[in-house]
Amino acid sequence: MPERLDKFLASQNLGSRKEVTLLVRSGAVTVNGLAAADAARKIDPEADQIAVNGQIVQYRKYLYLMMNKPAGVLSATEDRREKTVLDLLPPELYRRGLFPAGRLDKDTTGLLLITDDGELAHRMLAPKSHVYKLYEAQTLRPVTEADILAFRSGVSQGGQSFAPARLWTEKRTWGEAAMVEIREGKFHQVKRMFQAVGNQVLSLKRLKIGGLWLDQALPAGGVRLLEEAEILSIFDGELYENRPLNLDFIKNP
To answer: Residue 237: its pLDDT value, please?
Structure first.
């Protein structure tokens, strides 16, 4: 779909509308090899080749970023008092419209998807999509068989009911980890589910969304672009087994 050259350049994080207009006026921007004379001219991002100072602009309709969220930052777009996950993005990966798709508590760490694709975020977070999220928790007391059965049946806490979830344990160097897989995303859900069975979460980390695993090479606060196959893996699940996924919302260079 055609759009203004200055709007396109700004959307690709090459500056504000004013800054990219100055770039065009300076002769630094070419369209299909010819210098652009007007920042307001219409271009087709998917068909035209745009270059700035000789460097081809690799068009991305949407950004899909994986972050290894550290503790102590908010899963929000902005906050007047505290640092947010968007504050951690390097300049080359930041652009207007980005938001965390789903929230992690301030003290919860691990896999967080940051995007400007509202449709994908909605599909990922809707309970009916059956996109499960896997968490690793350190708890005050060991997980019991009774806890596992309670999670499997669904528990209630504070007047709110939670859908059935998978709970099991795995060995770690620091001890026994409680592994929890849920498909809802209610407020403080994992912590409240453990409270419902008389336990307490000491630390919590998200490891997986659908079929997308946290990149263990990412340090705390680290972020990188997702590959197309990784984006599609988010929807690995029962609802999508016999339903083709529309790839039109993805365009990678």
So the answer is: 55
Domain edges within the chain: 3-56, 64-127+211-247, 132-209
Residue ranges of the chain whose pLDDT lies below 70: 237-253
Q: How far is CA 125 from the centre of its chain?
A: 11
Q: Please state, in angstroms and rounded to a whole number, the distance separating the CA atoms of residues 71 and 51.
A: 39
Strand locations in 78-219 (E): 99-100, 109-115, 133-139, 156-157, 160-161, 166-172, 175-182, 201-209, 212-213
Q: Which two tokens stand for residue 75?
A: 């899963």
Active site residues: 105
The third-level CATH classification (topology) of the domain covering 3-56 is 3.10.290
Q: The whole model's pTM is what? A: 0.80
19: Cβ contacts below 8 Å, ≥ 6 apart: none
Residues 189-211 have pLDDT tens digits of: 999 999 999 999 999 999 999 99
Decide if domain 132-209 falls under CATH 3.30.70.1560. yes
Q: Are 208 and 133 in contact (CB under 8 A)?
A: yes
Please report the sign of the dihedral spanned by the C-alpha atoms of residue 163, residue 169, residue 173, residue 175: positive
> What is each CA distance from 174 to 138, 169, 171, in whole angstroms?
9, 13, 8
The set of residues, in sequence order, having a beta carbon less than 8 Å from that of 209 and lying 6+ positions away, is 102, 111, 113, 124, 131, 132, 133, 134, 234
Whole-angstrom distance, CA of residue 90 vs CA of residue 82: 18
12, 95 Cβ separation under 8 angstroms = yes
CA dihedral 86, 9, 1, 98 (to 10 degrees): 0
3-state secondary structure of 65: strand
Closest CA to 204 of 233, 182, 178: 178
